[in-house]
Write a structure and sequence with these properties.
The chain is α+β, with helices and mostly antiparallel strands. The protein has a domain of 163 residues: YmcC-like fold, CATH 2.40.360. It is 22% helix and 38% strand. The strands form two sheets. Strands 4-3-2-1-11-10-9-8-7 form a nine-stranded antiparallel sheet, with no helix packed on it. A two-stranded antiparallel ribbon has the order 5-6. Helix 1 packs antiparallel against helix 2. About 9% of the residues have low confidence.
Length: 245
């Protein structure tokens, strides 16, 4: 029983430490790290266009992000550009266009924003306010997302961002019946790649439990055996017979 309790305590401690690490990262600006990536598909009127966009975060240091944006089809590359962007800056030069994919600043914002917070979306959009938050399924996982909806130049826009990391999960532009939908299809930032540490914690707990149990068994085997029970000598019994008178 003590072995099980110790294993549970270790898992709980490591889990708390991992959460504190995530919490700390969300306070440093962008919630991703160097080497992370996201991929998006483009749909026009719910019909896949065959176009894709990959955002590779080459270097992340707080609010400063160096990103490689590549828009391509199955046959050729349309756009490939590397640029460093400071998410704390509202300078329109801290951005670049990715038509028809919106502009780069839309694809990653500071992590941990809440409803009514303001966020700068670069060229064409400027600063907008976060409208709400909800939970939606993206790239194989249920994610807590924040969103903003607004109108500009006759178009209606709805953008969803993953709250923990700040990456765009979906961007919708509509005008009448015409709809353009940019949707995250794959990412290295969540899913099995994020939850791998859970299995490591479980494996550590099991290994510790096995080692502790083994030591307990070995200790019992090495213990001096109890002395054999002492044989008692039989007690003589006497029978008296009545004599003849």
């Amino acid at each position: 029983m003590k072995t099980v309790q110790a294993s549970v305590m270790i898992v709980a401690l490591l889990f708390a430490l991992s959460l504190s690490g995530v919490s700390a990262s969300t306070n440093l600006g962008f919630g991703g790290k160097s080497g992370d990536w996201t991929e998006y598909s483009l749909e026009n009127g719910l019909v896949p266009s065959g176009e894709m966009l990959r955002m590779e975060f080459l270097n992340v240091a707080g609010t400063n992000v160096t990103v490689n944006a590549t828009a391509y089809t199955t046959t050729f590359t349309e756009i490939s550009e590397i640029k460093s962007i400071d998410l704390a800056s509202n300078d329109s030069q801290n951005d670049f266009p990715l038509e028809p994919w919106f502009n780069a600043r839309v694809y990653f914002i500071p992590a941990g924003l809440n409803v009514s917070d303001s966020v700068y979306l670069g060229q064409g959009f400027g600063a907008i306010n976060i409208t709400g938050d909800t939970t939606r399924s993206y790239a194989g996982a249920d994610r807590e997302v924040i969103y903003a909806n607004f109108s500009q130049q006759e178009y209606n826009y709805v953008f969803y961002w993953d709250k923990q990391t700040g990456v765009l999960t979906e961007g919708i532009r509509s005008l009448g019946a015409g709809v353009t939908d940019v949707l995250i299809s794959e990412t290295s930032m969540w899913g099995w790649i994020v939850i791998w540490w859970i299995w490591i914690l479980v494996a550590i707990a099991i290994a510790l439990g096995i080692l502790t149990s083994r030591k307990s068994v070995m200790k019992k085997l090495r213990r001096k055996p109890d002395a054999p029970p002492t044989k008692t000598k039989p007690t003589a019994s006497f029978h008296f017979s009545k004599g003849k008178s």
